[in-house]
Write a structure and sequence with these properties.
- The complex is a heterotrimer of chains A (about 650), B (about 210) and C (about 350).
- With about 650 residues, chain A is mainly alpha-helical.
- Chain A is built from 19 helices and three strands.
- With about 210 residues, chain B is mainly α.
- Chain B has a domain of about 150 residues: Cytochrome c oxidase, subunit III, four-helix bundle (Four Helix Bundle (Hemerythrin (Met), subunit A), Up-down Bundle).
- Chain B is about 70% helix and about 5% strand.
- The radius of gyration of chain B is 22 Å and the shape is elongated.
- With about 350 residues, chain C is of the alpha+beta class.
- In chain C, about 40% of the residues lie in helices and about 15% in strands.
- Chain C has nine helices and twelve strands.
- In chain C, a hairpin with a 2-residue loop joins strand 1 and strand 2.
- The chains are: A mainly alpha (about 650), B mainly alpha (about 210), C alpha+beta (about 350).
- Chains in contact: A-B, A-C.
- Chains A and B meet through helix 6, helix 7, helix 8, strand 1 and strand 3 of A and strand 1, helix 1 and helix 4 of B.
């Protein structure tokens, strides 16, 4: 380590004189996370944090999926006495809550956390300690709600928790309070990663990666992160108002004291509608990267694709009232939301065209990721079209709150987000682990999954049209829904087995898969230029980019810049639009303080479920941990380091 | 790297810190401001939504006492003067002036917190009385949280500036961004002040019309 | 209202008709919506077919050998033109659907008795949702013509109905799929819904907004009948409750009035005027018990009274420990209230 006053020019830097194995050795030392438990607790490496984030989110997928299977067992037969009303209501609330807040958004963010710095040619994500903090907060919030559920104090008012049902009068006890506070945990985690990702994408791109050369996945993540920033405050506010109503007697949602049940709905759906696009847009990014790679040509219509992503991101904020068409708001206002909800089909439709056109004008190879893309196209388009149906007010008034809507959103969420996710995991698995997933098992998972999914959810369109409402723990035997429900239940188990097969494939391949090398798919983006798995420092020399498909443009050699320090963690900031090299930025060392701050935040949040003073008392350890986190740890050096 | 490389440019001469949009900290602070700003905007929207459901506004209460909020506004606006000064001092990396400025900013928040206390005491309604009371307290509490967090930030930075770490480029950048955040705290008070103190007075005789 | 024939052809799955089905319209509103659904269905199917066709073509192209750069550029040029066409198709399609939706809505509004241009006098009903049953009040300027009942709607064919929807606790939603779309019942607000039945039959309505523990058991029987029959029902419903005739019924009556029953339930023409629970004046002619939970038979009725919590856990009728002989008497009395 250097000392202040020493000549910075004497510090070792990468370049012609220091490259290859010698450089690798020294950079590895500088950037490594110590092995063992302490290293695991203190790491700020985006790859290690990203991996555990993805893994944890997938655990929540499994938990949420088990709940779905329990629901389907109950609903397979009419008037089933298997599960009581109370238990079922908790189960469907936890299913939605787990899937939306603990799986779908976190897994997309986690994939971005891992992939984006590599795809942009930088060494770590921006604000790496905040990134570590974000994971712990997410984990603790998820554990809290699941422990509450297992102790029979889980939420019972649905994942959307409408008032007055979720208010103090009709949901006594702490169930809804745990739910509302879980929101706070997950929103803090998501907001943190979003700020990091915006900063990374705007400031840490490789030299030459001007905005018109940014890969489509990164564009998707940028749009998504901005959406999180503008959407999540709405649910933070609404859930805080709910906790306040329940804990300290405010009247936000109490109609007898000037409050309004619709205030909840407006605030929640102002968040809730963008939320589904927050889940969906990164998946669109996956599809672009996979389609490009396996069509062996750049995506058709890149500028149009970027425009489509941005317009979806913006339009998504103008749709929320379509969740409220049955609440009796003025009809003229509704027309606006119908029009906007229809309009959003346009950029989506354009994107579908461009992906297919890429395949058509390319040389497609039908590897497992590509199969999931095809599954996505078929399934998501159906979901999008039923979305157009429910955008119409008169139609929606029949379809709202029925199994038709359940079909619609599973088509767009599973078809539109989970299928691409499974393709993406298969695609980037070699980069994460150095090994390939098994191709045969992968194709089998896809086939079984595709069939199982449609068997489960296609009948629900009919079930809904035939009058079955949502969120019912049982139904009468003489209405005519029996056969359809049985088919859905069988399908659910088939679909679950495909996911199980996929997970087994991942676990076995992790140990025994074929070694992949750095670019097994012959892909075009920068993450494929580094070894698999990447070394802790990602890039030995920061690459320079001259087009949208750097590795295809590079020919045999990769252009790089040099001159970054080797003994201390340093990465490169470039200008926001044109990505000209600008500043050498020190990157933080591993530290325990993000974890300690997350523990302080957890204590504050959980304490405040029981007593409002916890906010005051809890703020003190939080302020202390944040201060130590920020405070420089060692004496000043010749050039800045962050400890 | 698995491909052979071709060196283009050496970047050793690049600085290790820069101000404004050139610093990562700026992006972080601006991201945070967008989040909080959206929160304020939505809370204000909730205020007007609740107001639209009522015939009489404020319902069963006097509007908050104008004096304290206006005093807060005045002191806030005045506080931006030393804030601008210390931000500039930091950007020009003048250590002595930065130290003085941060101490001033640490002190200036104290009367604001006292005034804020009087504001809470003179809202003329409890948070649990009705939705109007609830949203009023929420708006004021939201802003107060920012006041407090910026104060703590300023104190920590001020302390840091007097240690061996003061004078590092990064600390000047942090100070400049802290100044930016104070602008946010001041500017966000203006619409909140209007909504809390003036909107209830703009309804003629309490009736919305 | 005829079901659109093309749509029926498309929906080959049996069981489209049903007592709680949007696919079996028995009213003006649901009929119009099903027509609209037909329009959406065909246009969406066309869009889907085009996407699948293009996808199939693209996938089949995989057999081609390595494409030269010039061929690729040619493909891109064709694709650009196709994209323009696709955009036009989407815009035109969405426009048709949006206009179709708008005009359907407008036509239904124009047909409404109150706000529209119809000059038919509607039947006015006030429906109050509560956990987990429906209070039904037929309004009339003449107080002696008012009807109060629960968990059932009797309506004549061909007469518009205007229902005011309220809730006294949480959000519920009133929905008779065979007649019309749904409207929420939101505490602190009132909503309105128009119905216009066109076909006689027995239908079922179910609460369509999650309202707590027994949301799944909050249904409503909807009986649409010819005008003559409906007038008979109305005439009967205006009457106060029949006095108990036989010994068992008298015993049941006595038990009812002396115990907690009268605290929650009302029976017109008796001292019972509790409003917490459903009105029971003409209970015997109601198709179901517990808001559609069980058919209204003697066995089910006694099971309900013996242990309401066992049948519909969490509902607001407590366990009353009624002795078995009194149980039969109560059952007999209530079944006499037709």
């Amino acid at each position: 380590m250097s000392r202040r006053g020493e000549d910075p020019k004497a510090l070792p830097r990468d370049g012609r004189d220091l490259t290859g194995d010698a450089l690798h050795e020294r950079l590895s030392l500088t950037w490594h996370t110590s092995p063992g438990f302490w290293g695991w607790l203190t790491t700020v490496d985006h790859k290690l944090v990203g991996r555990r984030y993805i893994f944890t989110a997938l655990v929540f997928l499994i938990l949420g999926g088990i709940l779905a299977l329990i629901m389907r067992v109950q609903l397979a037969r009419p008037e089933s006495g298997l599960i009581s009303a109370d238990r079922y209501n908790q189960i469907f609330s936890m299913h939605g809550t787990t899937m939306m807040f603990l799986f779908a958004v976190p897994v997309m963010e986690a994939m971005a956390v891992y992939i984006i710095p590599l795809m942009l040619g930088t060494r770590n994500i921006a604000f790496p300690r905040l990134n570590a903090f974000s994971y712990w907060v997410f984990l603790f919030g998820g554990i809290m709600i699941w422990v509450a559920f297992l102790f029979n104090v889980g939420p019972e008012a649905g994942w959307f928790s409408y008032v007055p049902l979720a208010g103090p009068e009709y949901s006594p006890g702490k169930r809804t309070d745990f739910w509302a506070q879980m929101i706070t945990f997950t929103e803090v985690a998501a907001l943190a990663t979003s700020v990091e990702l915006v900063a990374t994408i705007m400031k840490q791109r490789a030299p030459g990666m001007s905005l018109n050369r940014v890969p489509l996945f990164a564009w998707g993540v940028l749009v998504t992160s901005l959406m999180v920033i503008f959407a999540m405050p709405a649910v933070m506010l609404s859930s805080s108002f709910l906790i306040a109503d329940r804990l300290v007697g405010t009247q936000f949602y109490n109609p007898t004291e000037g409050g309004d049940a619709l205030l909840w709905q407006h605030l929640f759906w102002f968040f809730g509608h963008p939320e589904v696009y927050i889940i969906f847009i990164p998946a669109l990014g996956f599809v672009s990267q996979i389609t490009e790679t396996f069509s062996r040509r750049p995506i058709f219509g890149y500028p149009v694709m970027v425009l489509a992503l941005v317009s979806i991101g913006i339009l998504a904020f103008g749709l929320w009232v379509h969740h409220m068409f049955a609440t009796g708001l003025p009809r003229l206002g509704y027309s606006f939301y119908t029009a906007a909800s229809m309009m959003i089909a346009l950029p989506s439709g354009v994107q579908i065209f461009c992906w297919i056109a890429t395949m058509w004008a390319g040389r497609p190879r039908f590897t497992v990721p590509m199969l999931w893309v095809i599954g996505f196209i078929i399934t998501f388009v159906i979901g999008g079209l039923t979305g157009v149906m429910v955008a119409s007010v008169p139609l929606d008034l029949q379809l709202h709150d029925t199994y038709f809507v359940v079909a619609h959103f599973h088509y767009v969420l599973i078809g539109g987000a989970v299928f691409p996710l499974l393709g993406a995991i298969t695609f980037w698995f070699p980069k994460f682990t150095g090994r390939m997933m098994d191709e045969t098992l992968g194709k089998l998972s896809f086939a079984i999954g595709f069939i199982g999914f449609h068997l489960t959810f296609f009948p629900m369109h009919f079930t809904g049209l035939m009058g079955m409402p949502r969120r019912v723990y049982t139904y009468p035997s003489d209405i005519g829904w029996n056969m359809l429900n049985m088919i859905s239940s069988i399908g659910a188990f088939i679909f679950a087995s495909a996911l199980l097969l996929f997970m087994i494939n991942a676990l076995v391949s992790y140990r025994k898969g074929l070694l992949s090398g750095s670019n097994p798919w012959e892909a075009s983006s920068l993450e494929w230029a580094v070894p698999s798995p990447p070394p802790p420092y990602n890039f030995a020399h920061i690459p320079v980019v001259e087009g949208r498909t750097p590795l295809w443009d590079a020919g045999g050699t990769l252009s790089v810049v040099s001159g970054l320090r080797v003994e201390d963690r340093e990465l490169l900031l470039t200008t926001a639009i044109d990505a000209e090299p600008d500043v050498r930025e020190p990157s933080p060392l591993p530290t325990i303080w993000p974890l300690l701050a997350a523990i302080a935040v957890t204590a504050l949040f959980i304490g405040s479920i029981f007593n409002p003073w916890a906010i005051v008392w809890g703020a003190i350890p939080l302020a202390a941990t944040l201060t130590v986190w920020f405070w420089p740890k060692g004496p000043p050096e010749a050039e800045p380091v962050i400890e | 790297m698995t491909l052979p490389v071709r060196f283009t440019r050496d970047l050793s001469e690049l600085p290790t810190h820069a101000f404004g949009t050139r610093s990562l900290t700026w992006w972080g602070v601006v991201g945070f401001m967008l989040i909080e700003g959206t929160g304020f905007a939505l809370a204000i929207a909730a205020y007007f939504f609740l107001m639209s459901q009522e015939q009489l506004w404020p319902p069963s209460a006097l509007p908050p006492k104008l004096l304290w909020g206006t005093l807060t506004l005045a002191v806030m606006l005045l506080s931006d003067i030393p804030n601008v000064w210390v931000k500039k001092a930091a950007e020009e990396e003048r250590l002595r002036d930065t130290r003085i400025g941060l101490v001033i900013m640490s002190i200036v928040v104290i009367p604001l917190l006292v005034l804020r206390g009087f504001e809470f005491a003179n809202l003329n309604i409890g948070w649990d009385r009705n939705a109007y009371g609830s949203i009023l307290w929420a708006l004021l509490l939201l802003h107060t949280t920012h006041l407090l967090t910026d104060w703590v930030d300023t104190l920590v930075l001020a302390a840091l500036m007097f240690t061996e770490h003061g004078g590092e480029g990064r600390r000047f950048v942090d100070t400049s961004e802290n100044g930016l955040y104070w602008h946010f705290v001041v500017l966000s008070w203006i619409p909140l002040y209007v909504v809390i103190y003036w909107v209830p007075r703009m309804t003629t005789g309490g009736l919305i019309g | 209202m005829r079901r659109p024939p093309l749509l029926v052809a498309a929906l080959l799955l049996g069981g489209c008709s049903g007592e709680q089905s949007a696919l079996d319209p028995a009213g003006v509103h649901s009929g119009a919506v099903l027509h609209l659904f037909g329009l959406f269905f065909w246009i969406c199917l066309l869009a889907f077919a085009l996407v699948i066709a293009f996808l199939a073509v693209a996938m089949l192209q995989a057999r081609r050998v390595d494409a030269a750069q010039s061929e690729r550029t040619e493909h891109d040029a064709i694709a650009s033109r196709l994209l323009r066409g696709w955009i036009v198709f989407i815009i035109v399609g969405l426009l048709i659907l949006t206009l179709g939706s708008y005009f359907t809505d407008r036509n239904l509004a124009l047909a409404a008795p109150d706000t529209g241009q119809s000059n038919r006098v509607p039947i006015r009903i006030k429906l109050t949702g509560q956990q987990w049953w429906w209070q039904v009040e037929y309004e009339d300027p003449n107080a002696s013509q008012q009807i109060r009942t629960a968990n059932e709607l009797h309506l004549p064919v061909g007469v518009p109905v205007h229902i005011r929807l309220e809730s006294i606790d949480v959000i519920h939603s009133f929905w008779v799929p065979n007649l019309a779309g749904k409207q929420d019942m939101i505490p602190g607000r009132h909503n309105d819904i128009e119905l216009l039945p066109t076909r006689a039959g027995h239908y079922r309505s179910q609460c369509a907004e999650f309202c707590g523990l027994q949301h799944a058991h909050m249904a409503l029987d909807v009986v649409i009948e010819p005008m003559a029959d409906w007038l008979k029902w109305r005439a009967q419903s205006i009457q106060p409750a029949k006095a108990p005739a036989g010994a068992e019924e008298k015993a049941g009556y006595a038990y009812f009035m002396e115990h907690q029953c009268s605290a929650c339930h009302s029976i017109t023409g008796t001292p019972a005027f509790g409003t917490v629970g459903p009105d029971l004046t003409h209970f015997a002619s109601r198709p179901s018990i517990g808001a559609g939970t069980m058919p209204n038979t003697r066995g089910h009725l006694e099971a309900w009274i013996a242990n309401p919590q066992g049948v519909k856990e969490g509902n607001h009728m407590p366990y009353l420990a009624v002795p078995p002989d009194k149980l039969h008497a109560l059952g007999a009395y209530l079944r006499s209230l037709s």
